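Encoded backbone
================
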Amino acid sequence: PESQLEKLGAMLQSQFEVARSSVVVPDKWQKGTPAPLVRVGEIAVCFVEPSGGRSNMLETLLKLYSNDRELPAHAQLLFCRVDTLREEIDSFLHRAFYADTCPLVAGRLFCALRISALPEASYLYLKQRMMNLYHTKNPRYVRLALLCDAADQHRVSTDLSLFVKTVRPLNAEAMADAL
């Protein structure tokens, strides 16, 4: 007879298989395997340049994930807003820094979008928690990208300048393929 724990494990494994197979990857992403833009153990800060009078946030996000050949799950993203709670920041950073403990997201990239939309206190909290986890969690399996509109890059203080990385957004054709 199976124990309750074994039954739960089997249920979770079946859910894991369903979740992994439900992500549709564009055909063009299946060819070759370029190196990820953000490697294991890295944090990247990306300044998103606008074009045509609009932000390229989505295009940049998809570019980051295109090299991984996997689209992000909702748990891998934090959409920063004026009313983003500290609990949301904590939960997101916990998932990012401890991703190696969950088979659904182990080795996957986490992104916080529009970090400049956070009020100053929330931005400072995000930065403090992230740096604390980055300097205390060993070994580091985190893969984290922070996206900021280029017009607001003055808000990203110099202590994050070591993590700044240039990422070109996907072009229109690649964007259409991804979606």
Notes: Residues 59 and 111 are 13 Å apart (CA to CA). The chain has one domain: 38-178.
